[in-house]
Amino acid sequence: MAQVSVTGYTDKPSVVEGETVSFYVTADNATEAQVDIVRLIHGDENPEGPGFIEEVVSSDFSGVKQVKKQFVDLGNAIRVPDSSGKLALTDSLTIATYVYATTPEKGRQVLLGKFSLHETAGYALGIDHAGRLAFWIADGSDTDEIVSQVPMAHHTWYFVAASFDAKSGKAVLHQEAIVNPYNGRLGRVAPFDHLSSVEQSLKLKIKSATTDFMWAAAGNSATVRGAFKDLLFNGKIDRSYVWNRALSLAEIKSQCGQSPIADGLVAGWDTTIGYGENGIDDIVVDVSANQLNGIGVQRPIRAMTGYNWSGKHDDWRVAPQEYGGISFHEDSVVDCQWDVTFSWTIPEGLKSAAYAARIRIGEAEDHIPFFVRAAKPKARILYLFPTSSYLAYANEMIVHHVPVAQAIGSHPAVLTKTEADYFQDPKYGRSTYDHYTDGEGVCYTSWLRPILNMRPKWRSSAIGTTWQFPRDLSATAWLEHQGYDFEVATDHDLMRDGLDLLKNYSVILTGSHPEYWNEFGLNVMEEYISTGGRLMYMGGNGFYWVISYRDGEPEIMEVRKGEAGMRAWQAEPGEYYHATSAERGGIWRNRGRAPQKLTGVGFTTQGFDACHPYFRMPDSYHKSVSWIFDGVEGEKFGDHGLALGGAAGLETERYDLLLGTPPHTKLLGSSTNWSDNYPGVHEDIMFHHPGLLGTQNPAVRADMTYFTAGNNGAVFSTGSIAWTSSLPSFGYENDVSRITKNILDAFSKPGELPGGAWTEDEKSWR
Amino acid sequence: MSNSSVGRRRLIPRWRVKSSSLSRRFRVPGTKRSLLRFEGRYNPKTLQRELILRDKKPLFWLIGLFALAFIPIAIGQQLVFSIFGSICFFAAVNVFWTLIIGTAGLQSFASLATVGVGAYAATYLSITYGISWPVMLVIGTAFGGLMGLIISIPARRLDGLYYALLTIGISEFCRNYITQSDALGGQFNGALFGADRIVPEEAMQTTTGQTIAYLTSFVVLLISLAIFRVVSGGRIGILLRTAQSSKEDESFASAIGIDFQRARLLVFLIASAALGFVGAFYATNQGGASLSLFSLDQMLLLLAMIVIGGLGKAEGAVVGTVIVVFLNQWFTSWGPWRIVLVGILMLASVLYTRNGLFGLRQQLIEIRERRKALSRATRTTRYGAFLPEQGPEIPDKGVIAEREFERAIRDQLRDWITPEIIEEHRLSPMGQHSDHLERILNYFRKQPISNKYVVYCEESYKAYRVVALSGIPGVPPRSVDDKTYSNLDEAYHAVFLRRINDLKSQH
Ligand SMILES: [Fe+2]
């Protein structure tokens, strides 16, 4: 029996009544599925909590829908629309480019060409099965080639070119390396001799392919699946040129590092054109008279160092002419581009919450989540789902790629069937915690693909608990159980509507791990708090990484992990600046914006072997804040929870005046004395020395803080991801629940906060 | 081990590359092939660029065929011409026989008989109707094909030994038929002469005539090799060999879209027609045919040739022929002993080689590998868990240093495994442990992904199992046993116990 499976995605994360959300679904070995819209109430299946709870939304929509298998055309390319057929060359031609291959040995790859495998037609400059530069022509039934004398070295820039004289059948192939002290993996002391010029006659005449001229891919087609890209390339390509005549070897050699000879130039793409104030788009500009601009497919990475990177500048904003590199990956996907399977228009009056299309085919089931925000906000409380952080983790698989993953997790990974299956064929792309197949870190992640770990029941294999979205449902389930009138929105709504969204509410609750923020989002949050808003920071390791989205494309997020932080990878030297915002990537702390400045606390440790209780700190007895602990017995709290049995743990935060914690901040509680599986974070380490792990490092802890801001604003920070998972313990009635409730009750009332009168120094001790 | 240095120097210098000059690559006109395929590479020890001939076979063919063509001409003696002529003739026959046995997979012993049929038919028609030699060649080909068609009929039902016996029977029948037939020279014990010759009989007395006659034989061998190359290296040949090397033979072949029976019969017919052509050529070369073409001893001699050379390869057929013909015809003074020698060579091939002379290389490589493994197992001098000979084989030397570290740490950790440590883990697989247990756990957790144990969740909070990751994209985790655990702590401990076991058994 063929295995039935189903999954999909929506066109946007968040919708409002009257709007339509479209679902893109793929099903293996099935044509029909039962579809219902459900409201997601609780996710975590830990038996100590309420378990998985959903509620079917009764609507005319429920029923059996037609589904089909949909394919993903993986991989980056640049497509060159050419309606006048200028590049449909069948006669003499020359191609020249600059290339930096990261996996030259992986098999045939196209660099530049109009080549189609299913038609066996066209021409292309590429890399052959043995890692050698190659030029192919095909006549409709047969292919002929000329290859270079030596294989290409990986992570090395080359100037490469091929010319073909149709009259004599003679082809010339030329390669020379461009090695300076900065631009490649090796320097000049490694005595490689990369130079090779080969001449050979080719037997065939070119028949033009009907597929597009492409960088980094050939065209192909198969029954059922249809057209797709093939012979995908991994690595960088810089400025590229095509002529409609055969340049002599002398002419070719003279082109290295020069602007192109005009005689016969069909296309001359200058990849350094297009940089602006906010980065660079996906259009690759042809400076020849034909203006054959190319368009990036699946978002090739720009703002990358080029063949001529001098190493003097690490920023394309200063030296754009050294940033002609465009990076391509065979497994990149930012948009599955599927057909819409069904859509749903949000009915009037639908409660603002997390929803999902629940799709069932026999035993197979998937939930495709989306969020419904309020059309006219009425509640005083907003829960902000951190969709940017969900995107960062989308389809994370480090257990399968990172040998030390089990050391980070400090226990054996716990695999689910979905994850084990997905790893067989990771066709929906990877997360910003993973690497492309060539080892480069993944810097783009997108909503427009199935996100297997953003599902209500998902548990992270590395961590062994829920992570992100399913954990956040424990907070909204708690809000609902406590009878609060609340509404939900997402990072994407915040980025679109800004303060207009937040100012409707007295209090904003964050997700358990709101780690990824763009500058606009931070600015809005800062503005909200300083103008009287109240923030309940319900998690840990938040407000940490710099991200950016290109204007008008909120589905695709960029992250460039920099030289510090708990990071899965690090951008290559000179490639720290975002292509979609012109900002320096990395952690906000290293850009002068440590999380402490906003929330009072900032990332200090992570560990996954146990979670712990907090202990009340002296400040918590001060009358200005002691109301927070009303109804809490004893000094210890949070000694329970669905995440490893404690409210303090996983990823936690620290009060730190040196990093910008407001000086009047109260340290309400703290949790310390953790195991060595909790190391201090990287960005705190100057000299590395023994004693930086939990049992010896005082920075390994979780701090709970509270401070007031102007205009009755205030910030309460739990300092721990696990906090949210402790809310549902003991039927939602517990000390974590009680503290959260005390804060929320105070924060959701307008006007002055409790305890504001207790402003004077203690005169005499009891 | 007083001196452990290793290293090999190259005596013949490699082709020097002048990278700044244009390298012109020539192709055999009309084809996409270069005669000799030189490949550039970076010497892994020096990064020096060098050209190497990856496939030396074409070079050996060139040298071998060149020698075959010019040695007799250079010597210019009749005996030598005769011996080399035999070599060309028998080699051509053996090449096609190889096609029949190796490619078509039919155990036919009627190859020489097919040659005979071609020769007799061409001779008879030439004598009777005065047909000239070019037409004789066509007739021989036709009769060879016809003969192939006839002996192919039983091949549809018979296989292996039975088919071999049947084809010997057919040869014997032909021989008997000729001795009974006056028209085919029965009264002269089968000697039928007087056919048209390519080189007229009187010219055969001159060295020029002998040279031309020899060169025609050589050309026939070249044609045979070309046909072998086209059939065996073509689509049918490749598919047939793929099918034969797989267990399911015919079902596999039909699965990849090839009618196995039809394909092998087609190859058989092509080879038979070609054998008929060789027979007709024999007639035009000798001026007729003789009964030795059907004799069992001649056939056994042919068998010796392909067994000594190695079955299934054209070079085996040719070199085996050279050896046997040379022994047989040069050392005539040895009398029957030379036949004994051929027998001994054949026996030695069967007993000591896997596939004749041309299987020896692979055999030597395997012997060397076995000796390497043996040496690895017995030697105690280790440099970071490796032998000096292994150094050059490991591209990333960091691996050597890390392996040494791991080996030392394992020795330490093994000493710390006690029942108390195991009980400590059982009671609490997570959290802070004693220093020794923490260090053991950290060693386990940092191991590479390939074969690394993880827990597999069959049902949340109900059923967990232990599996091992492949570490290879596309390859699913391997299940290590069928035990299930009802909670994670038990599963974690099961992983721990497996790792402890592995650590104990690993050195
Ligand atoms: Fe994170």
Automatic annotation (TrEMBL), chain A:
InterPro entries: ConA-like_dom_sf (IPR013320), DMFA2_C (IPR046540)
Residue ranges of domain N,N-dimethylformamidase beta subunit-like C-terminal in the record: 302-728
Cited SUPFAM superfamilies: Concanavalin A-like lectins/glucanases
Gene3D superfamilies to which the protein is assigned, alphabetical: 2.60.120.200
Name of the protein this chain belongs to: Unannotated protein
Organism: freshwater metagenome
Automatic annotation (TrEMBL), chain B:
GO molecular function, one term: branched-chain amino acid transmembrane transporter activity
CDD domains given in the database record: TM_PBP1_LivM_like (cd06581)
Record key words, sorted: Cell membrane, Membrane, Transmembrane, Transmembrane helix
Compartments, as annotated in UniProt: Cell membrane
Keyword Cell membrane carried by entry: yes
Transmembrane spans: 59-75, 81-102, 109-127, 133-153, 160-178, 212-231, 265-283, 314-331, 337-360
Membrane topology value: Multi-pass membrane protein
Gene Ontology cellular-component annotations: plasma membrane
InterPro entries named among the record's database cross-references: ABC_transp_permease, DMF_alpha_dom, LivM-like
N,N-dimethylformamidase alpha subunit domain span: 403-504
Protein name as catalogued: Unannotated protein
Organism: freshwater metagenome
